[in-house]
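Researcher: I'm comparing several assemblies side by side, and this is the next one on my list. It has 1028 residues spread over two chains. Same procedure as the others: predict the full complex and return the structure.
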Amino acid sequence: TTPCPSVCILLLLCLGRSANGGKVLVWYTEGSHWINMKPVLETLVDRGHQVTVLVPSISMFMTSDQSLFHYEAFNVSLSLEVFEAFLDKFIHFTIYEMDYMNYFQIYSKFMDLLKINIQFSLKFLDGVVKSETMLKKLKGDNYDMLLADPIFPGSDLTADMLGIPLFLSLRFSVAHNWERLCAQLPAPPSFVPAVLSKLTDKMTFSERVFNFLFYPLQDIVMEKCIWKDACEMMGNADIWLMRTYWDFDFPRPFLPNFKFVGGVHCRPAKPLPKDIEEFVQSSGDAGIVVFSLGSLVKNLTTEKANMIASGLAQVPQKVLWRYRGEKPESLGSNTKLYDWIPQNDLLGHPKARAFITHGGANGVYEAIYHGIPMVGIPLFADQPDNMLHMKAKGAAVTVKFNQMKSEDLRDAINTIIRDKSYKESAMRLSRIHHDRPMSPLDEAVFWIEFTMRHKGAKHLRVQAHELTWYQYHSLDVLSFLLSVFLLLLLLLVKTCRFCFRRCCCRRKTKRKAE
Amino acid sequence: TTPCPSVCILLLLCLGRSANGGKVLVWYTEGSHWINMKPVLETLVDRGHQVTVLVPSISMFMTSDQSLFHYEAFNVSLSLEVFEAFLDKFIHFTIYEMDYMNYFQIYSKFMDLLKINIQFSLKFLDGVVKSETMLKKLKGDNYDMLLADPIFPGSDLTADMLGIPLFLSLRFSVAHNWERLCAQLPAPPSFVPAVLSKLTDKMTFSERVFNFLFYPLQDIVMEKCIWKDACEMMGNADIWLMRTYWDFDFPRPFLPNFKFVGGVHCRPAKPLPKDIEEFVQSSGDAGIVVFSLGSLVKNLTTEKANMIASGLAQVPQKVLWRYRGEKPESLGSNTKLYDWIPQNDLLGHPKARAFITHGGANGVYEAIYHGIPMVGIPLFADQPDNMLHMKAKGAAVTVKFNQMKSEDLRDAINTIIRDKSYKESAMRLSRIHHDRPMSPLDEAVFWIEFTMRHKGAKHLRVQAHELTWYQYHSLDVLSFLLSVFLLLLLLLVKTCRFCFRRCCCRRKTKRKAE
C-alpha cells in the first residue's frame, strides 16, 4: 500500500484550510472603535476564518464574547484605574475646559495630554513587541494578516515583525495625516477640508487660507506625537478601510487601495424589549426622540442635567434618554432614563422622529442608515466635524454643549421634526447609504479575504510611495525646467547684447572714421 | 363603485415602470467602442429597461440586432464611402507613414486629419441637434438618461438640451484631457503617465520631465480640436465609466464618480464551431496561437503578409489567423486563415497558449480574462500604450510592425510560451480581474440604474468643479500668504533699519558731544 491516499487527504485538508479559512490577527482597540470592528470579525468567523484578538490586561470593552474569537492576552504595566482616570481627564478637558481657554492654553494642555497618551500607548505596545514569548507565539501561529485600527499605534511594526500583510481600518487621522503622508492620499486643500477644521468642501477665500495653513500646522503637531519611522511602515498597509462613505463625507480624490465602508456596523432594527416597546407605543402620532451622549460620558453636572431635562420636557414626543447619572429634578413625564438603550433598534423603529447625539461616527451612521434627522451636541474628537457634515447635508442642527439653554434644545428638536426638509435630507442620505453595489460589511469582508487570498493587494499600491515629496510634486522637474529656461534666456540676452554692441561699435568706428 | 381599483392598478403600473424599467438613450458610436458597449445594453434590456440607440444613416457596425434595441436613425450629410476612405487614410498614416516622418511632419499631418475628423463629427452631430423633428421626438420620449462614449462628440450638448443625466463610458482621452480638465481627475505627472506617452508609472528623471511637458503639450493640441464650452458641459456627466481596472492600468488617484469596468464585454468561452475545434484539437500538447490585428485592418502588403506567415510557420503551435487578404505564399501548414474567429472562445480554450494582437483594449482584456500571454504588434491609437501596460506587468512582449522580421515574430511567440513567467503574470492579472467585489458588467449596470433611480449621482461630484484652476491649486492662497509674508518682512527690515539708524545717530551725536 502506498502512502498516497493519506498524504492526499492531508494535502486537501491543508489546501482547504488556506483557501477557505484564513487566520486573522486583530490588533487591540477600545471603545467605539471596538464596537465598530466587532460585526466585521463576527462575519469573518461565520465565514470560517479564525479570528484572534490581542487583548491588553487592562481593557474596558474587549471582554465579552469569549466564545466567538480567540483571545491573546498581553500584559500592560499600567492599572485600569490610572488609564480610566487619564481618559476622564481628557474628556473633561475637551468638553468643559477647552471652550474657556485661549489657543495657547489649549495647545499646551493638549500637548501635555498627548505626551501622556504616547507614554501609555508605548506601555500597551511594549506588552506585545517587547515580550519575547508573545512574539514567538504570534510568529508560530502563522497568521495570514493583521487587521488594525491605527488609533492604537504599533500594528504596523508588529505586522512588519511577523512578516504578514497589514490591513488598516480607520475613521480618520488628524488632518488626514496618516492617509496623506503615509498612504499618499491626495488632499488638495482647496476643496478637501482638513478633519477637525470644522470646514465643508465649499469654502470661502479666507476659509481656504485657513485650511491651507491647517494641514501643515497639524502636521507639525502630529510630527511630535508619532514616530517618524512609523509613517513609512504604516505606508506598507495593503488596504485602508475608511469608515466613511459619500452619504457622510464630502466627495474627494482617493486611491485604489482606499475602500469606504462607513456604517459597517449598521443593521436592520430588531424588535424592542417589551417595556421599551410599550413606552414607545405610548407616544402615539408624536413619536419618539432617542437621546444618547455616547458610552464615554457617564455623568453631567446637576445643573446641566436639569437644563437638558427641562428642554426635553417641553417637546410633544416621548424621549428615551440613555443616562446613568442621578435623575434630574426637572425631568418631564415624557422622558424616561435608561442605563442602556438598544439605540439601533430604536432609530429603526417606525415611531422614531429624531436622534439627539454627541455625534460619534457610529451613532451618526445608525441615524443615516435609518434616515433619522439629528440634533447634535458634539463634545470632542471628530464629533464636531461629524455633526458639521450632517448639518451641511441638511440632516441635522447642532447646539453648543457649554452655551445651550433648555429652549435651544427644545427649539432644535422641534425644528428638525417640524421642518420636513431635515427628514427628507436624512432619507436621501439613507438612500445613498443603502443603494451601493455591495453593503459596507460585505465590502469590508471581501477586501479582508482578498488580502488573505493574495497575500496583500500590491496591485492597488500607487508608485507615489517610491517618490520623495519634491519628486511627487514635480518640484525637481520644475526647477530643472526653470534652470534651462533661465539659461536660455541668459544666453539670448548675452547674444543680443553682444550683437548690439558690435553694431554700435561698428557705427562708432564708422563715425570716427568719418 | 369607486374608481379606486383601476386607478390603483394604473398607479402601480406607473410606479412599476419607473422603478424597474427605465428609458436609456444611447449615443451613436462605432467599431470597438460599439462592441464594448453592446453587452451592457443587452443586460439592460434583459433587466427590463428600454434601450434606444441613436444610429447615423452611415454606420459600419451598428446595424444588427434590430430586435433587441430600439433604433433612432438620423441623417448624416456624408456618404459611407467618404467616411470609410477617411478612416483608411487615417489608419494608413498611423501604421505605415508615421514611422518614417519627423515630428513636425507628424504634427502637421495629424492636425490636418483631426480637422477633417472634426468636420465629419460635426456633420454627425448636426444630424441630431440641428434636426428639429429629431430633438422634438427625443424630448417627447422622456428618457431617463443619455449613455455615451465621448469619442463621438456632442452627447454632453444633447443631454443638456434634453435635460437628462449624462453617463459617459470611455477607455481614455488624449493625455486624460477630458478626465483631467473636464472631470477634475487628479493626475500628478510624477507617477501618472500620460496616455500615449509610452511611459509606465515607474519613471526616471528624464521621463518625468517628458511626462510633465507631455500633458500641457497635448492639452494645447487638443484645445484646437474640442469646443471650449464642451469641457464644462462634459464636466456635468454624473458617472465616468472607465474601461480599465488595476489588472490593466497603473494604480492612480481617482474620484468617487469614476468607476472602473475594464473587460465589461468579457465572458466565459463557449464551445467552438466543429471545424475550428477539430483544428484546435489537432495541435496536441503544443496548443494553439490566436492571431488577429483587429477589425479595422483588413489587408496587409503581400511582402508583410509573407513575412508574418513565414514567422508563424516556424512555431510548433497551430495558428488561427484572422485575415481577410490574399493567402500568403509562405503560409505554413500549421496556420489557418479565417475571415472571422470566435476570439474570446479561442482564448478561453484549454489549448490556447498565446495571443498575437494589435493591442486593442477589447482583445487585451479578453486575454487578461482568460490569462493568456500576448505578443503585441501595436499599430495606432491606444494600442502601443495598451501593449506597454501588458509588457510592464510581465504578460507580453512587443514587436514593431514596420521593423519586424519573420524571426522576430517567431522568437516573440517562443519566448512568451517557453518562459513560464509570462503565463504566470497573465494568470496573476486574470486573478485580479476576476477577484473583485462585483463583475465589471454588473458594476456598469448598477451605476447606470443608480443614475436613473436617483436622476443623477450628484453626491459623488467633487466641489473642485466650482473652482478655477488657480483656486484648485491654491495659487491665490499662496500668493496672498506670500504677499503677507513679504509685507511683514519689509516691515521688519524697515523697523530694524530705523532702530539701527537711531542707535547709530545717537552714538554719533554722543561722540560729537564728547
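Model: For your comparison table: Residues 1-19 of chain A have pLDDT under 50 and may be disordered.
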